[in-house]
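Predicting holo structure, spermidine bound.
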Amino acid sequence: MNKLVRFFLIIALASAVLLFTISSLNTSQGYSGGNTLTIYNWGDYIDEDLIKQFEKETGIKVIYETFDSNEAMLTKIQQGGTTYDIAVPSEYMIDKMRHENLLLPLDQTKLPNLKYIDKRFMDLSFDPGNKYSIPYFWGTVGIVYNKKMLNGKNLTSWNDLWDPELQNEILLLDGAREVMGMGLNSLGYSLNDTKQAHLIAAKEKLDTLTPNVKAIVGDEIKMLLANEEASVGLVWSGDASEIMSENEDLDYVVPKEGSNLWFDNMVIPKTAKHIEAAHKFINFMLDPKVAAQNTEYVGYSTPNKQALKYMPKEIVNDERFYPSPALTKKLEVYDNLGKKNLAYYNELFLQFKMHTK
Ligand code: SPD
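Done. C-alpha cells:
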C-alpha cells in the first residue's frame, strides 16, 4: 500500500471512530436518536403518569417542556434552539403557524384513534380537514367566584367585576386576548374586534378595574383561588373545574354578554426530528381510556366522544364545562387577527399590566 492510500485509510478510520463516539454520547444523554420525543405543552396540562405509560409501551423517551402562552410558545419555536416534535397551540395560533409554514402536515393513516374525536371538533376553520392539528382539549373563558366569600352573591356579567365591593379581590390569568377580551365583551364588542377606537375603549375600561385587581398570574391562579387568597378569578374553564373539586364554595360562570370558546390542538412543528414517534404519541393520547384519564386529571373538556363513556356522569353532564352545542354557538372563537393587530392587543395588555402595578 503506498503512503498516500495508507494516510487516507487512517483518516477515514479516525473519522469513523469520532462519529461513533459523538453519536453514542448524544444517545446516552437522551438528546438525539430516533427514540426520543420532545413535547412542548401548556403547564399543568397532562397527567404525567401517561407519559411514563407511553415511554414504557413504546420505548420512546419523552422530554417534556411547558409554556404559559401561545405567544411564548411561538417565539420559542421560531427561535429554533430546541426542536420540538409536538406542540399544543390554540386555534388562532394554529392558523397563524400554518400560514407561516411552521407546521408539518400530519399523516392521518398513522392516527387510527382519530375516529374517536367528536365530529364537531374536527374540520374547524383554523385548520380545514385537520391537515396540521388534532384536538386535545377545549373550553371557555369565564369567572370563577367564591360564593361564601361573596356572601352568596352570584356573578353573571363581566360588568359585575367592576363592583367597588370587589376591591383587591380579583385575580386575572396572564393572557392578552383573554384580558382584552373581557374589556371588549364588557362593552358589547367582539373578541375579534380590530377597530382602534374599540380597543382603546376596552383598555381604558380595564384601567378602571385596577382597584379590584389583586394580581395578574399564571398557573398559580388555581392555588390562590382554592386557598381563598382572592374571591374572584378570570380563568380558563378547566382551571375552574379543577379547583372546584378542591373547594366546594367555588362556582364558575360564562358571563351573559358572551365569552371565548377555545380549542387546543396537537401539532408537529416543521422542525420536528422524530415524526414517527410524534404520530405515535398523538395516537396514544387519542386512545379513549388514555384521554379519559388525562381529562379527569387536568379538569379540561375532552373532544374525545368515546372517552366520555369512561368518565363519571357528573363531569360529562356538567353544563358549566360541557356547554351544549346551542350555548357554544353563542360564544366566539378567537380569529387569527394578523401580526399587526395581535401586536396591538399585546401592547395594550402590557400597558394595562403596568397600570395594575
Ligand atoms: N394550564 C393549562 C392551560 C391551557 C389552556 N389553554 C387555553 C388556551 C386558550 N386560548
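The first strand starts at residue 36 and ends at 42.
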